[in-house]
Amino acid sequence: MSDRYRVGLGEDSHRLVRARPLILGGVRIPYEYGLAGHSDADVVLHAVADALLGAAGLGDIGELFPDRDPTYKDVESTVLLADVLDRVRQAGWQPVNVDLVIHAQRPSLSEYKPKIQQRIAELLGIPANAVGVKAKTGEGVGPVGRGEVIRCHAVVLVRTTDNQATDAEASG
Ligand code: MG
Q1: CA 43 to ligand 1 centroid distance, Å
Q2: Taking the complete model, does pTM exceed 0.90, yes or no?
């Protein structure tokens, strides 16, 4: 019998630089620094996308959207995540819940966590209470603590779509 549920893990980090917008989980956050990257460098959506791809056994976003490819220059990560979600659904999986930890020394993310939660829920088509958003500082040490990078870890659970479940049962 085929799996009904699978889990996936994603991790990403990007450097903080001047003259870039800070976008986390599809939400624009006012700050004097933003994240460097080929796309909009949304570490949260990149981690979520990799977790989804991992759960579905579909590789990673570096393979699907190479940073050598000018197509993805400054692309919004919401577009990349939508593409990933399409692939995951075509492979017969749908997200159940996501839990993530954002590691950022600054800015304080407490007031933005509900917005990020809501945005990710919309993007994945799941209830807001199926999205966990936690924020941690780097305690002043390491690349996060020195304010050099923002990092995100995400874990996602997927389950078979009804179609695939039926197929799996039909084939025994
Ligand atoms: Mg990235």
Answers
A1: 5
A2: yes
